Amino acid sequence: MKELHNIGWYANKISPKLPKNAFKPVPSRLFGGLAYTIIIICGILTITLCRFNNIINFLISLVLGFSFASIGFLGHEILHGTVVKTHWLKNLLGGMAFLPLSIGPNLWIKWHNMSHHANTQHEINDPDAWMSFEQFSNRSFIKYIYKLPLWFRSLFSFSALSISFTLHGTRMFFIYVKEFKRQKSIKLWIQFILPWIIWIGLFFLVETDKWIFSYLLPFLIGNFIVMCYISSNHRLNPLVPINDPLVNSLSVTVPKWLDVLHFNFSYHTEHHLFPGMNPKYYSLVKEEILKLWPDRYHQMPLSSALKLLWKTPRIYYNNEELIDPRNKRIYTSLEKGLKPNKISYHNL
Ligand SMILES: [Zn+2]
Ligand SMILES: [Zn+2]
């Protein structure tokens, strides 16, 4: 593997070239959150109070699902402290933004900010990193799944993207809640249960088909959209012993209008370099990276990243490669030359 550098090494070289404003909180980004909140409330009220046919209800579900994901991206940003600085307000707004996906703000800060960001793609310490071949060898259920052909596993895992975010978040809750002291863990429990009270409560308030269109379908769509980005963030990159954001992260490209609606979530390498920065300035960071380290930076269209995720297995082999235990084929990671038009493997 090439020489690795930590986040500070890159940040020190780029930050003098960025405007001071880039690191100031930007409360005006809450207008986007307000717009999505209005769309979500109106969408749910329209489905539950009106009698439209299922095609119109489904179209509203699509808009709701898109909004669930988008406001989640804003929640991510808020909880990094780039929108407001006041602690309680940050947690309240972040919690509200993550309400549709049922993730509590304190859990998110522990899981995402303190664990994932601090230990990205570390084999043991990153809660979001995929397992190594050694870890795989001790997991009997996963071993059973990996007896199935790659195309079937891909179909299964892409379908599972529609619940993965909330499911993984729930798993994280039960792992991390034990690490908090009593008072904080009660807070975590309340934040965990509250969204479910709301969404299950809605089930008892409205007819089942209206609940499906107003919550269940948007929940699945929202999870799927969020996970399309998240699964492309690091899963094609190698595991690393040093948190080098250019080696362990991938930025995807999407149409400009989608970047606006998704709060620039596509710039993931830039985000790992400067998690406390207003995402409006990520394109400037990208320009600087491309000037200084064009060969180290990974980027591709989101659709290409998804295609690569479909066509490659997810178990790491010697940190830099991916192995399909079923036929012992070893695929390259992005660091070893994996490209959308160049998927190569060799046999173990
Ligand atoms: Zn990440
Ligand atoms: Zn983040």
From TrEMBL:
GO biological process: lipid biosynthetic process
Location of the Fatty acid desaturase domain: 56-299
Transmembrane segments: 30-49, 55-76, 88-109, 150-167, 188-206, 212-230
Enzyme class: oxidoreductase
EC number, as in UniProt: 1.14.19.-
Entry annotated with the keyword Transmembrane: yes
Claim: tRNA-binding is one of the keywords in the record: no
Gene Ontology annotations for the cellular component aspect, listed alphabetically: membrane
Keyword terms: Membrane, Oxidoreductase, Transmembrane, Transmembrane helix
Superkingdom as given in the UniProt entry: Bacteria
InterPro entries in UniProt: FA_desaturase_dom, Fatty_acid_desaturase
Gene Ontology MF terms in the entry: oxidoreductase activity, acting on paired donors, with oxidation of a pair of donors resulting in the reduction of molecular oxygen to two molecules of water
Name of the protein described by the UniProt record: Fatty acid desaturase
